[in-house]
TrEMBL record:
Pfam families: adh_short_C2 (PF13561). This is NAD(P)-dependent dehydrogenase, short-chain alcohol dehydrogenase family. It comes from Pedobacter westerhofensis. It comes from the Bacteria. Belongs to the short-chain dehydrogenases/reductases (SDR) family.
Length: 267
């Protein structure tokens, strides 16, 4: 059975409410589509309206680096849906200057942690009580392989925040597992997304080389990718779908790397 047929026939998320943050583009968009295909009612958030106005999801415009927007999102979801069964904390950004410590100021560091760590912490805190009351629910934190494989010249602030997210996710999973809520981290490697395209174009422009050369340089800097390519976001979404499904009912506290074999050590 191919993947498309599986998506059409497996409705094991029917009746579930899923929130996917950063759900209008890239990995988040692919996750939202996969959960909807499995029968979930999907809510998405992003800072801007989706390019595709026909997306069949409930959309909430919000900047989750702001406490007030996290509160507003949680209140709207609670009022309309009574809470969520699945929370995908996918928001994140690596939009901070490259070049190492000397290029990063306090504002850069603060924004990196607001977007990549504290947005998840606050949203979890707002929506977890309803999960705990039902003694069921799944939270997925979308991290990055860079959280354990820092590249100082281009991702110092981002990778520091993602590393903190990994530690927080593990601690939270230990706290809430006895009460029936699973918490799992997914760490994608390089995914072929718009954000990655912008990132590579910016690096290439600064280095005065082609995007193709910069892409190969990045592969080399990471030590190579055995599968020889970036992931399609759909592939990452498929892992997330499995982890929130009943098939993964005994999985919590883990950090799943999906990186084409890039991570260089046994783990």
């Amino acid at each position: 059975m191919n993947m498309n047929n599986q998506q059409q026939t497996e409705q094991n998320l029917a009746g579930k409410i899923a929130l996917v943050t950063g759900g209008t583009k890239g990995i988040g968009k692919a996750i939202a589509a996969r959960l909807a295909a499995a029968g979930a009612t999907v809510v998405i958030t992003a800072r801007n309206q989706p390019d595709d106005a026909e997306l069949p999801y409930h959309f909430i415009e919000a900047d989750l680096s702001l406490t007030k927007d996290v509160t507003r999102v949680a209140e709207e979801i609670t009022a309309q849906f009574g809470g969520v069964d699945i929370l995908i904390n996918n928001m994140g950004a690596n939009t901070f200057p490259g070049g190492g410590f000397s290029t990063l100021n306090d504002e850069h560091w603060d924004q990196a942690f607001q977007v990549n760590l504290f947005s998840s912490v606050r949203l979890d805190k707002a929506l977890l009580p309803q999960m705990l009351a039902r003694k069921s629910g799944v939270i997925i934190h979308i991290s990055s392989t860079s959280g354990q494989f820092p590249i100082w010249e281009s991702t110092m602030a981002y990778t520091s925040a993602k590393s903190a997210l990994n530690a927080y996710s593990k601690a939270l999973s230990d706290e809430v597992a006895p009460q029936g809520v699973r918490v799992v981290t997914v760490s994608p490697g390089l995914n072929k997304t718009e954000a990655m395209s912008y990132f590579l174009n910016d690096l290439a422009k600064k280095a005065g080389i082609s995007v193709e050369e910069m892409t190969q340089n990045l592969f080399n800097r990471l030590g190579g990718i055995p599968l020889g390519r970036m992931a399609d976001p759909v592939e990452t979404a498929e892992l997330v779908y499995f982890l929130v499904s009943p098939k993964a009912s005994y999985i919590t506290g883990a950090n799943y790397h999906i990186d084409g074999g890039n991570y260089p050590v046994v783990r």
